[in-house]
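Work Package 4 report. The design task specified in the project plan requires that, given a folded chain encoded as structure tokens, an amino acid be chosen for each position. We show below one input record used in the internal validation round.
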């Protein structure tokens, strides 16, 4: 998963989030920066019942927020979601070029965008996709 800082930069640059079940998000600047939340229909927990591991289901949690507006949270997209976002940005490019490879323990991405070859690298594929999207949004959409 990408860092909260990269997720915030993507949001600031204009990455649009259509919230859905099983999406991860963070609530920054409220003392919960280290917590990642997931949108789900039901909460399930792994507990012990008389010494046996059980899965328990809870409709609500005592400490839960009543609600929070989606503009106040930050989407924490997965690698697959970031890849899909990048593919969406590339869809109008004539001949799509997206290459992902690992070299010396780092993930390298090369794309063709606006008749320009762009290269990015990061420690993980998620971060490489995120940095690529961030560059495109900041360079071509701002």
């Amino acid at each position: 998963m990408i860092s909260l800082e990269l997720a915030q930069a993507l949001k600031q640059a204009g990455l649009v989030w259509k919230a859905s079940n099983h999406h991860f998000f963070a609530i920054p600047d409220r003392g919960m920066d280290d917590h990642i939340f997931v949108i789900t229909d039901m909460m399930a927990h792994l507990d012990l019942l008389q010494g046996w591991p059980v899965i328990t289901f809870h409709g609500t949690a005592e400490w839960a927020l009543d609600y929070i507006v989606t503009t106040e949270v930050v989407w924490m997209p997965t690698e697959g979601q970031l890849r899909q976002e990048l593919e969406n940005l590339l869809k109008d490019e004539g001949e799509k070029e997206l290459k992902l490879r690992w070299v010396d323990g780092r993930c390298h991405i090369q794309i063709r965008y606006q008749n320009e070859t762009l290269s990015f690298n990061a420690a993980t594929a998620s971060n490489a996709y995120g940095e690529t999207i961030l560059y495109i949004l900041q360079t071509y959409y701002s």
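DSSP finds three helices and eight strands in the chain. Validation will be extended to a larger panel in the next phase.
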